């Protein structure tokens, strides 16, 4: 910004909101035209719970600009941020939302959500109330004091989980902090949460801001092209491979490279396995989609990966679930990693090919010419899909509690191609990754942070970001109990989605890991194994209905199908409760720590124990970790 032009006197909070209201991004089907370009607002409004530290400054500013920059009230700062993150994920990082909080607990409630956004590389703007910059009334209500550092506040908890962190302690700071924050959020390599700790007195201070600061700006997301030398090396590696396999991650979807991946895999005859974040980049029906990779992977995908002489990662971090804790790929297999960030591209000792997934796959495809790999095992893929149908088939005994696989099958039968299955933690993420057969874009999983409590709020944010899709939220009773209050927000705003609440009376997933994966005894996970005087009888239907949702409990998959179909006619959330087996998981394909087709997951096992079962499990564990690739 130059020195010419006039100024406008505003409080720092007013200036922040005014500036955010004119930050634009190219629209796929834009709602606002600037010249000949169709644009959308990049920050599509702010979630807010007002309190000490943001009500006077940010509250007044959001009210003043409510006609051009919307404000939404939620029930919990963490779940408001979850909704904002899910919205950004639905928009493939092309748009985002903001969250403002009060000082103290309001701010620290958002820390978990910021970590979630950081791990998943998703944009989120957090405007957190902070202490007085003048320090005049210190210690203020809710102030966390560091006895040895006067510059610290509770908001410093955000530093490890923010991609950009700044403290606004003078009104002119926003001239620099805001552009820096959005520059990071729109950078595909460094994308993540931006946290602005906004001192509460500074929010209310006035400053003469340059008028040009408020000129609308369009933010474009770049597509870095690969280095030509890296491209040549990787092309030589692919040409020399007979049995390559592609591991497709979330970067494929964020880059909008789905069509490019489909063409690349088909042309070069390379099977594709998917991560949690990458699932539905290819529809399940695509002939080169061999299913999920790794711990919760399909027999077809994992066999292809074990037999591969070259593994090509596209937009994946090669997380432990994807690689079976580094035991999935054969000893002689070489790794290539196509990734927007050099840090991720170099993981596992891979040959790095740094660049945007779409343009890099296009360039690699051109370099490969007519190269084709050996024909993949189509019979293995067909066998796997038949196994999925068996796991998910309608049970003959409708009175029995259905397995998770049978619940998934019922929902799949009751929905159309526009359905999106979403989830975050517990048993269902593995079962869905394994068994849900999506159309393109029909899967939304938060599994980078695997955050219990994301589900209900995330379903609301997903529906806001993709209103044309039928959103199905799978949640266990444990996650539902952790965070469900945004149901009330969705009712108030008339945001419809369907919650399928599977009640197995406790933390069934961790119980299985405890007893089967780690050799332990059932303890403190299922209610029946907890130190309680009375076993709980929680009426989830009554609870959800009390918040205004349409709620019903069903027995059997036929009734579940009918209720899922009926939910599509409503303009409010529907909660469908169904009981599943408390301790046993037959028919999901996830009966053991690795499953009957899945792969090893490294969860440390106690080396010393009085129980023979535990000692035996430790010996098995030693054999499993001996197969891990140790190259970083």
Automatic annotation (TrEMBL):
GO terms for molecular function: 3D-(3,5/4)-trihydroxycyclohexane-1,2-dione hydrolase activity; acetolactate synthase activity; flavin adenine dinucleotide binding; magnesium ion binding; thiamine pyrophosphate binding. Residues 231-364 form the Thiamine pyrophosphate enzyme central domain. One of its GO terms (cellular component) is acetolactate synthase complex. The keyword Electron transport does not apply. It comes from the Bacteria. The keyword Hydrolase applies. Its EC number is 3.7.1.22. Keywords: Hydrolase, Thiamine pyrophosphate, Transferase. Residues 71-143 form the Thiamine pyrophosphate enzyme N-terminal TPP-binding domain. Pfam families: TPP_enzyme_C (PF02775), TPP_enzyme_M (PF00205), TPP_enzyme_N (PF02776). One of its GO terms (biological process) is L-valine biosynthetic process. Residues 427-578 form the Thiamine pyrophosphate enzyme TPP-binding domain. Belongs to the TPP enzyme family. NCBIfam families: myo_inos_iolD. This is 3D-(3,5/4)-trihydroxycyclohexane-1,2-dione acylhydrolase (Decyclizing). It comes from Ponticoccus litoralis. The gene is iolD.
């Amino acid at each position: 910004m130059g020195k010419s032009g006039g100024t406008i006197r505003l409080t720092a909070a007013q200036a922040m909101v005014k500036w955010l209201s004119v930050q634009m991004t190219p629209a796929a089907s834009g709602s606002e035209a600037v010249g000949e370009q169709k644009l959308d607002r990049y920050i599509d409004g702010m979630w807010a719970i007002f309190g000490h530290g943001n009500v006077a400054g940010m509250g007044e500013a959001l009210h003043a600009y409510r006609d051009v920059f919307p404000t939404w009230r939620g029930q919990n700062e963490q779940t408001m941020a979850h909704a904002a993150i899910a919205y950004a994920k639905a928009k493939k990082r092309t748009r985002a939302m903001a969250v403002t909080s009060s000082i103290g607990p309001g701010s620290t409630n958002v820390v978990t959500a910021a970590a979630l956004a950081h791990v998943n590389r998703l944009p989120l703007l957090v405007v957190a109330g902070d202490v007085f910059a003048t320090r005049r009334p210190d210690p203020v209500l809710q102030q966390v004091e560091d006895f040895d550092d006067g510059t610290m506040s509770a908001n410093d908890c955000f530093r490890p989980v923010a991609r950009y962190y700044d403290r606004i302690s003078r009104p002119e700071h926003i001239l620099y902090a805001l552009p820096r924050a959005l520059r990071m959020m729109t950078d595909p390599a460094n994308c993540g949460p931006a946290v602005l700790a906004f001192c509460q007195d500074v929010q209310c201070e006035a400053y003469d801001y340059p008028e040009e600061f408020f000129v609308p700006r369009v933010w474009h997301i770049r597509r870095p092209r690969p280095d030509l030398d890296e491209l040549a090396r990787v092309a030589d590696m692919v040409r020399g491979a007979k049995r390559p396999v592609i591991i497709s991650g979330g970067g494929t979807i964020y880059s909008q490279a789905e069509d490019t991946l489909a063409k690349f895999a088909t042309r070069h005859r390379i099977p594709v396995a998917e991560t949690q974040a990458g699932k539905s980049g290819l529809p399940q029906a695509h002939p080169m989609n061999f299913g999920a990779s790794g711990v919760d992977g399909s027999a077809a995908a994992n066999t292809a990966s074990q037999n591969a002489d070259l593994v090509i990662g596209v937009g994946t971090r090669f997380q432990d679930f994807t690689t079976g804790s580094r035991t999935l790929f054969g000893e002689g297999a070489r790794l290539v990693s196509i990734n927007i960030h050099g840090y991720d591209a170099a993981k596992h000792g891979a040959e790095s090919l740094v660049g945007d997934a779409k343009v890099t796959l296009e360039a690699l495809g051109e370099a490969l010419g007519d190269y084709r790999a050996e024909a993949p095992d189509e019979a293995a893929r067909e066998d796997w899909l038949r196994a999925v149908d068996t796991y998910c088939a309608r049970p003959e005994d409708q009175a029995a509690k259905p397995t998770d696989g049978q619940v998934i099958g019922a929902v799949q039968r009751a929905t159309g191609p526009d359905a999106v299955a979403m989830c975050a933690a517990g048993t269902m993420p593995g079962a869905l990754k394994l068994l849900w057969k999506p159309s393109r874009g029909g899967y939304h999983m938060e599994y980078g942070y695997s955050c219990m409590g994301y589900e209900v709020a995330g379903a609301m944010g997903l529906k806001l970001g993709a209103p044309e899709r039928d959103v199905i939220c799978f949640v266990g009773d444990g996650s539902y109990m952790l965070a469900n209050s945004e149901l009330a927000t969705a009712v108030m705003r008339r945001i419809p989605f369907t919650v399928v609440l599977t009640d197995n009376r406790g933390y069934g997933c961790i119980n299985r890991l405890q007893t089967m994966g780690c050799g332990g005894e059932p303890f403190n996970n299922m209610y029946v194994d907890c130190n309680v005087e009375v076993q709980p009888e929680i009426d989830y239907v009554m609870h959800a209905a009390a918040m205004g949702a349409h709620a019903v409990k069903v027995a059997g998959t036929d009734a579940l199908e009918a209720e899922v179909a009926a939910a599509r006619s409503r303009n409010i959330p529907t909660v469908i409760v169904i009981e599943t087996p408390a301790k046993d998981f037959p028919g999901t394909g996830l009966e053991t720590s690795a499953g009957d087709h899945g792969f090893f997951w490294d969860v440390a096992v106690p080396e010393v124990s009085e129980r023979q079962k535990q000692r035996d499990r430790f010996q098995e564990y030693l054999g499993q970790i001996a197969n891990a690739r140790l190259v970083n």
